[in-house]
Design goal:
PBP_dimer, PCN-bd_Tpept, Beta-lactam/transpept, 7-stranded mixed sheet, 6-stranded antiparallel sheet, single chain, elongated, alpha+beta, cell membrane, Beta-lactamase, peptidoglycan L,D-transpeptidase activity
Length: 683
């Protein structure tokens, strides 16, 4: 094998054949190489074209990305919805205001910031009411660093951190130093300068409430006021000043920002730290309806570092709210109550600080008026309707409808049950006798008559039976402790001692007598409304339940939300639905008996002064109050009622705190006034 390799055998003509084969092979290789190179060339061109196209398209993409990285988005509150009364009288609205807003300028110099601040101080009204003493201390540090530095010792400077030294400086700057070293113009200047200095990104409102002239002046000098723009904003206003504001509620300012108590929740809902939100009353209760969708803006910069603001989305205004309140009734009744309280002067009225009246539809819970007036220690009288859900009082005999209801519910009495109300009174061994308002006695009475004549003695007998006791004159009386709890459950079904569910963010429950005081005499007091306390809105729900025959309906201020189209046509969005919280209308005879007694009270009984063409039914109340630290006794005066008695359309609950006998008819007079005003308008 090796031989043949070393000495291959060659035949004639082989060389020519090898040459041909070589030439053919070379041609094939050449052709294939050329084809390959051609293919590579085509691919290369394609790759080059793709690379070129990619560079062109990607340049736009990356340019856009770069712009995005150099652009920040921020939002701005849009107008809140307005609040109206049932007849579309505007109660809360947004007031347009012009502002000077600074948008952060890139690489702004100290000299530019000073120039902007000086220009505004000299040419625009700068309000410093919001400046605190702490702010002034910071301004002094900015103005005279050398002076403030002299307040620190060398040892302190070498020992403490910069933050600790700053706190020491603040603590050592006195009011006298501020007064001596900071003029009013200094305060204005550094207030603006500090805002600009601290705004390294985004924007900050420098001034609010610019006049048209001031706004024009800023616009005309935009070339030297880099970053300062005139912007439109709003403030929340009420049409009738402070009247009803305790119910309408408050909205935060941009400076105050989100309330700490709900900040985390609101941030999770995409609010900003400086968003304005409702923090009390209806503004808080219906925040989700009233608040609009914020507008979104982009903030970018030109080649000189100047801010450029563009609108991304304009947002939407919040929806309007229409209340059940009739402002004509609300304002008229409140005015009458203020006039009444202003007439209560002198020592006899020293404990009278509150009068409340609620006018409500007993069938739907719609509140037509919720009025309140208070008197402070100086004797000044002011409106405070919100007190109707916050303050609680013993209502006296106005409670007695609840006692009759409990007695008939538990079958300890019926409509025919009679008891004697005599001059002997009702006496438990070891205690003084208890009487009705007439110590001579009211005679033998059934349940309805006892209500119309306001018999305490009758209620004491009912309470004794409810408590499982047996009454004998001047003998010990035993009452089950559980009777207190049962009575609370019973009257709670009517609306007393339970939260009514009114659509306001906070509602008081009232005061419950102490467990340690569960003596028989206390239960007797409970039965005549002189033990637990109730809010005026609870009394309104209670009388509504009695009037409609046993349905405890949620009282409400919200009627509907709505918007308006381009032509001003109102479009209803969300409407209130009547909500029955409890239904004890199966105790039909109990309610018929109570209604009969209440009607008799307005025809010939103690409430007859309230009656009119509207044919009312109702119950007066007098609860004696011993003021702590004194031996003086005054009485809360109350009235609860409705009209017409046979087809209740409107109900009223009124209570006046701590009045002498001479003003005992206060709530009857005010309730009559409310009835008359309502029926004058609604027939």
């Amino acid at each position: 094998m090796s031989f043949f390799k070393k000495n291959p055998i060659r035949f004639e003509g082989q060389k020519e054949i090898e040459t041909q084969i070589k030439n053919q092979t070379d041609n094939v290789i050449s052709r294939r190489f050329k084809i390959l190179m051609g293919f590579i060339g085509v691919v290369g061109v394609i790759l080059l074209v793709r690379l070129f196209l990619t560079q062109i398209t990607q340049q736009e993409y990356y340019t856009t990305k770069l712009d995005q990285y150099n652009t920040s988005l921020f939002t701005k509150d849009t107008f809140r919805g307005n609040i109206y009364d049932r007849n579309y009288k505007r109660l809360s609205y947004n007031k347009n205001i012009n502002c000077a807003t600074y948008y952060a300028v890139q690489d702004i110099t100290k000299e530019e910031m000073e120039m902007i601040a000086n220009f505004l101080v000299k040419n625009v009204n700068v309000d410093t009411k919001s400046v605190t003493e702490r702010d002034k201390k910071d301004y002094l540090i900015l103005k005279n660093e050398k002076l403030v530095d002299s307040l620190l010792t060398k040892e302190e400077k070498s020992t403490y951190t910069s933050d600790e030294l700053y706190q020491l400086q603040l603590s050592r700057i006195t009011s006298a130093m501020l007064k001596e070293n900071l003029s009013e113009d200094d305060i204005k200047f550094y207030m603006l300068y500090a805002k600009i200095q601290n705004c390294s990104s985004g924007s900050v409102v420098l001034l609010e409430g610019l006049t048209i002239k001031e706004a024009s002046l800023i616009g005309e000098n935009s070339d030297i006021l880099r970053g300062v723009k005139v912007t439109n904003d709003w403030s929340r206003e009420t049409t009738y000043g402070a009247n009803f504001k305790s119910v309408l509620g408050k909205v935060t300012t941009k400076k105050a920002g989100l309330p700490a108590s709900t900040k985390d929740i609101l941030l999770a809902k995409d609010y900003n730290n400086d968003s304005r939100v409702g923090i009390s009353g209806l503004e808080m209760q219906y925040e989700d309806i009233l608040a609009g969708t914020p507008a979104t803006y982009s903030l970018s910069y030109d080649s000189d570092g100047n801010p450029v603001v563009n609108t991304v989305s304009s947002g939407t205004k919040g929806d309007n709210i229409r209340l059940t309140i009739d402002w004509d009734l609300q304002s008229s009744i409140t005015e009458q109550m203020e006039k009444t309280m202003k007439g209560f002067t002198g020592s006899l009225y020293k404990y009278n600080h509150n009068i409340y009246l609620v006018l409500i539809d007993p069938n739907t819970g719609a509140i037509y008026a919720m009025c309140g007036v208070q008197k402070d220690s100086k004797g000044d009288v002011y409106e405070l309707a919100g007190g109707a859900v916050q303050n609680a009082f013993a209502p006296g005999s106005a409670f007695k409808g609840g006692t009759i209801y409990a007695g008939m519910k538990h079958n300890v009495i019926n409509q025919y049950t009679e008891f004697d109300d005599t001059s002997r009174g009702f006496k438990i061994a070891g205690t003084l006798p208890k009487y009705s308002w007439d110590p001579g006695g009211l005679g033998r009475l059934n349940a309805a008559e006892a209500l119309s004549q306001s018999s305490n003695i009758y209620m004491f007998y009912v309470a004794t039976l409810l408590g499982g006791g047996t009454y004998e004159y001047d003998q010990p009386l035993s009452i089950k402790d559980s009777a207190f709890d049962q009575m609370r459950l019973d009257v709670g079904e009517l609306g007393l001692g339970v939260k009514t569910g009114i659509d306001l963010p906070s509602e008081a429950l009232g005061y419950r007598g102490k467990v340690t005081q569960r003596q028989p005499g206390n239960f007797l007091d409970f039965a005549i409304g002189q033990y637990d306390t109730y809010t005026p809105i609870q009394l309104a729900q209670y009388i509504s339940t009695l009037a409609n025959g046993g349905k405890r309906i949620q009282p409400h201020l919200f009627m509907e939300s709505f918007t308006e189209d381009e032509n001003g046509t109102k479009i209803s969005l969300l409407q209130h639905q009547v909500k029955v919280l409890d239904d004890v209308s199966s105790y039909k005879m109990a309610f018929e008996t109570i209604q009969t007694g209440f009607r008799m009270g307005c025809v010939s009984g103690l409430a007859k002064s309230v009656n009119g063409d509207y044919e009312a039914a109702g119950k007066t109340g007098t609860a004696q109050v011993l003021h702590e630290g004194t031996y003086d006794i005054w009485a809360n005066r109350a009235f609860v009622g409705y009209a017409p008695y046979d087809d209740p359309e409107i109900a009223v609950a009124c209570i006046a705190e701590a009045l002498p006998n001479g003003a005992g008819s206060t709530c009857q007079t005010l309730s009559k006034y409310a009835f008359e005003k309502y029926f004058e308008k609604y027939g």
